[in-house]
Design brief:
- The protein is an alpha+beta fold.
- The protein has one domain.
- Helices cover 16% and strands 25% of the residues.
- It is built from 3 helices and 9 strands, in the order E-E-E-H-H-H-E-E-E-E-E-E.
- A 4-stranded antiparallel sheet has the order 1-2-3-9, with no helix packed on it.
- It is globular.
- It starts with 12 loop residues before the first strand and ends with a strand.
């Protein structure tokens, strides 16, 4: 009988064991923890921009090219059949490879002078919020490079 490689599927999300998660489907590298878990506070959109700048200056997790995700990138994290428990015991529909206890969503691009998009891990919906909405979180992302 011929032995054939059955093509065992690779897990979509890979824990890199360094605080980052690689999405094998998109090639993006995400922070395992979000801004609340790291910074211990909520962020307005402008504070999120500043926070990304600060973590890049400090080579956060060994990298200096973190950014705010695009709306279509972060929407791909939503997986209706997956659940982790976030802050305030909210059910978040993202892969359990991400650390539990984080915020209910993340700021994302694009933005204009008044508003920015905010993506909910609970509902899977992106909505526009005023940039001064003060109860936001951010999950930074970068392009994965071998």
């Amino acid at each position: 009988m011929e032995n054939k490689n059955l093509g065992i599927p690779k897990n979509r999300f890979l824990d890199n064991q360094d605080g980052t998660i690689t999405d094998n489907e998109t090639g993006l590298c995400w922070c395992q923890k979000d801004s609340f878990q790291t910074y211990q506070d909520w962020l307005t959109f402008q504070e999120a921009i500043s926070w990304v700048d600060e973590i890049n200056k400090k080579d956060f997790l060994g990298f200096h090219d973190w950014r705010i995700p695009e709306k279509d990138e972060i929407e791909k994290l939503f997986l209706s059949d997956k659940i982790i428990i976030g802050r305030s015991n909210q059910e978040l529909h993202i892969d359990p490879v991400f650390e539990s206890g984080g915020g209910n969503g993340s700021w994302c691009m694009p933005f204009d002078q008044q508003a920015a998009f905010y993506f909910s891990y609970s509902s899977g919906i992106s909505q526009q919020f005023d940039q001064d909405f003060s109860q936001g979180y951010l999950r930074p992302v970068r392009l994965y490079q071998d």
